[in-house]
Amino acid sequence: MKLFKLNPKILGLMAVCTLSFDVSMGQQSASDFHKGLIVVDGHNDVIYESIFPGRDIGKRLKQGHTDLPRLREGGVDVQVFAVWSDDKKFPKGKAFKHANAQIDALEAMVNKYPKEIALVKNSKEVQLALDAGKIAAIIGVEGGNMIESSVENLEVLYKRGARYLTLTWNYNLPWVTAAAIESKTSSDKGKGLSEQGKVIIKRMNELGMMVDLSHVGEKSFYDVMAITTKPVLVSHSNAYALMPHYRNLKDQQLAALKKNGGVIGVNFYSGFLDPGFNDRVKHLYKQHFGAQASDKLSPIRQYERLPLALRRKADAPLEKLLEHIDYLVKKVGIDHVAIGSDFDGIESSPQGLEDVSKFPLLTEALLKRGYAKTDIAKIMGQNFLRILKENENP
Questions:
Q1: Could you tell me the CA-to-CA distances from 279 to 177, 274, 300, 322 in Å, in that order?
Q2: What is the DSSP letter of 369?
Q3: pLDDT of 192-231, one tens digit each?
């Protein structure tokens, strides 16, 4: 598998890269190096945020993190578009229909801009899209509530292009439990995969659909690890040791992920990166609105009320994201770390990484940090493409 694009988008995903690079830039700028990478973002919520509500992301938008012009500016070659449906607003009987309606909206957008973007279902189609100079769009389903406990519904979404299923969002399902709920009690009672859950995981493995363990509880995590026959994805999570939030993975989980051969995509949300984020927001909120400002609002609601300049000041420093990358690389190895920004699903991202157009800044920061170019290529895209292929059927 090649680590870099050829000129301009000829990549040969199945070839083996025999090139080697040193860390020094020489005559090549960080910007040029970034342009030569295959950049994959493993999780973006722009379907729910903009596409499904009817915004035209083929044009530059004033709101949100994502549109096609900014994806081009950011050098994003492969974008996973998350299909998301709130468990409470769209329970059984509505969630599967809502998921399909979002895929319909994504397909309509792709059909409107056929020269810019292509919906792809496997690594070969990724190659064809990039050879044609197009952004490759992959569907990821964020939340098992959307299959409504039905293997048949799972198969329908797979046929429509879904290449991973995040087993839960922030609520338990009849067949699997979520980190947001599991974390509230120390007992394992009622936690993990049910027998139906094991059937669903087995069918995902058979289909070639990646099992995504972001959002799932620890018991569910280990239950999956005990039965999966394919490498798993943790599409948008970080290191618990650096930021102790239930959405992040503990060291023991990272060790299991490494043994499984899976991949973790680093999440850009400041609240999953920086232990000081909430306190900083509260301080700036009080400073701006006065000592009598309401403490009843959550930090994120306070953040949303701040002026833009103060929101940028509250955002996690880019250094915090780099620290998580460093830590994850140390714990699981360079072949198991990727990007899962969560853009358009988060309110706050690291300073400088305000939207998808800013991805070159991350590449530049990794170069300055001393990462080898081949290692940066793995983090920025190749590790995700590797696990995509390893989950595919021959």
A1: 30, 10, 11, 21
A2: T
A3: 999 999 999 999 999 999 999 999 999 999 999 999 999 9
CA atoms of 352 and 147, how far apart (whole Å): 37
- Find, among 166, 198, 174, 171, the residue nearest to 182 by Cα: 171
Strand, helix or coil at 211?
Answer: strand
Rounded to the nearest 10 degrees, the angle between the axes of helix 318-332 and helix 359-368 is 60
3-class DSSP state of 338: strand
Tell me whether the omega of the peptide bond preceding residue 8 falls within 30 degrees of 0, making it cis: yes
In this predicted structure, what is the pLDDT of residue 344?
98
CA 215 to chain centre: 12
Judged by DSSP in three states, 137 sits in strand
Distance of alpha carbon 118 from the chain centroid: 19
Residue among 125, 199, 124 nearest 155 (CA): 199
36-71 confidence digits (pLDDT tens)? 999 999 999 999 999 999 999 999 999 999 999 999
Helical packing angle, 151-159 and 95-112, nearest 10°: 0
Could you tell me which CATH class the domain 37-274+316-391 is placed in? alpha beta
4, β-bridge pairs = 37
Nearest residue to 173 via CA among 210, 215, 235, 225: 215
C-alpha to C-alpha distance for 34 and 38, rounded to whole angstroms: 8
**Scanning the structure block, which residue is given the tokens 């798993």?**
232
- Residues 250, 239 contacting (CB under 8 angstroms): no
Per the structure block, which two tokens stand in for 261?
């051969």
Within the chain, where are the H helices?
30-36, 46, 68-73, 95-112, 123-131, 151-159, 179-182, 195-207, 218-227, 251-260, 270-273, 277-289, 299-305, 308-314, 318-332, 359-368, 373-377, 383-391
- Name beta bridge partners: 210: 164
Measured CA to CA, the distance from residue 254 to residue 268 in angstroms comes to 18
Q: What are the φ and ψ backbone dihedral angles of 177, each rounded to 5 degrees?
A: -115, 150
Q: Give the separation between CA 31 and CA 240, rounded to whole angstroms.
A: 32
> Beta-carbon neighbour count of residue 275 at 10 Å?
13
Look up residue 317 and give its DSSP letter: P
Cα 153 to chain centroid, rounded: 23
73, 31 Cβ separation under 8 angstroms: no
Domains in the chain: boundaries: 37-274+316-391
